[in-house]
Amino acid sequence: MDMNTIEAVVPTTDPAEWRDGDAWLAGGTVLFSYGSYAFGPEPLKRLLDLGSAGWTPITVTDAGIELASTCTVAELYALPASPDLSRRDWPGLDLIRPCCDSFVASFKVWNMSTVGGNVCTALPAGPMTSLCAGLDAEATILGPGGASRTVPVTDLVTGDGTNGLARGELLRSIHVPASALASRVAFRRLSLSNLGRSGVLLIGRLDGGTSLVLTVTASTKRPVQLRFGHLPEAAELAAALGDAIPEDLYHNDIHGLPAWRRDMTYRLADEIRAELAAPEGSPDVNVSGDFWPPEARNSTRASRHTSGRSPQQEGA
Ligand SMILES: Cc1cc2nc3c(=O)[nH]c(=O)nc-3n(C[C@H](O)[C@H](O)[C@H](O)COP(=O)(O)OP(=O)(O)OC[C@H]3O[C@@H](n4cnc5c(N)ncnc54)[C@H](O)[C@@H]3O)c2cc1C
Asked: If 0-12 CB within 10 Å is exposed, 13-18 middle and 19+ buried, where does residue 35 land?
């Protein structure tokens, strides 16, 4: 570990134990990469280690899916093939693997990094943020003295590297509601380079077969969600994007200029609109970008990875 300011690693899940100079430690792929001084002017002194929390990574019920914050990307990737889900008609599950695959990660990151760590890190290209926001997931957050609150993941990520957690608060879990999982979905992602970090990642949902929910991530500094009581025409969708996303909300870094991210947001949003307007499985749909249509989650659909394992799982 390359953090020479750490005086103690404390196994705990109790926010009451948190004090200045502490950081929650999940997979450690950010903490150990960025180092002790990346999180403020004062160096980190202790790591509060969630590694022995013992939380069940994934719980499936009729109400939806509960993800412990400590659920790893690898565990989430395995979920669509789980027998627990074989009797559920949840098209929203099709988003899980494309979102995991958007995490252009090494073998170590794939197997160690966590859903909660990704959301709390709050990078615009955080694919777990995209997935959870796109499915209207709610985060449960613990504070000292048994305090607990819930907040939509869409609102928890507030900017590039910023989140709505108060000092010492702990993200315990994320609930993905069955109502969103039951909707037809569409996904688009673009990167400037092959297997590069996402520059634009959009998720569409058709609630009740009629109402579009569009979630914009990666191109913007924080998630932006548009809700329509119907399926809009192209011009209405473009106008709504213009109203919802001011120019300075488009992200600007080495993974894409704001003007490109803006243009691709409009383009992918319209592809999603057209896909969800067409009958399911229609061949006349434009798909720009990677990882869509999804890998089969049952034998009736075509499989993108013949081995059924992602490149990351295979040690790429
Ligand atoms: C090679 C490489 C590629 C990467 N690619 C991407 C990418 O494409 N997209 C992307 O978004 N990130 C990427 N990352 C960054 C990082 O790996 C991910 O964001 C990862 O998901 C972080 O999860 P973690 O569990 O390792 O977090 P950690 O490093 O353990 O923690 C990260 C931050 O979140 C806080 N935290 C963790 N869990 C909680 C919790 N439950 N409650 C409150 N705070 C918490 C920690 O205190 C810390 O501030 C990459 C990193 C590397 C090294």
From this structure: middle
197 close to ligand 1 (CB < 6 Angstrom): yes
CATH code of domain 58-180: 3.30.465.10
| Fold of the 183-277 domain | Enolase-like; domain 1 (3.30.390)
Domain ranges of the chain: 8-51, 58-180, 183-277
pTM of the model: 0.94
Task: For residue 126, give the ligand 1 atom closest to its CA.
Answer: 11
Strand 46-49 versus strand 22-25 pairing type: parallel
C-alpha to C-alpha distance for 190 and 181, rounded to whole angstroms: 23
pLDDT in tens, 263-310: 999 999 999 999 999 999 898 899 999 999 986 544 333 333 322 334
Counting ligand 1 atoms within 8 A of each CB, the residue from 109, 163, 190 with the most, and so the one to mutate, is: 109
Nearest CA owner, ligand 1 atom 17? 29
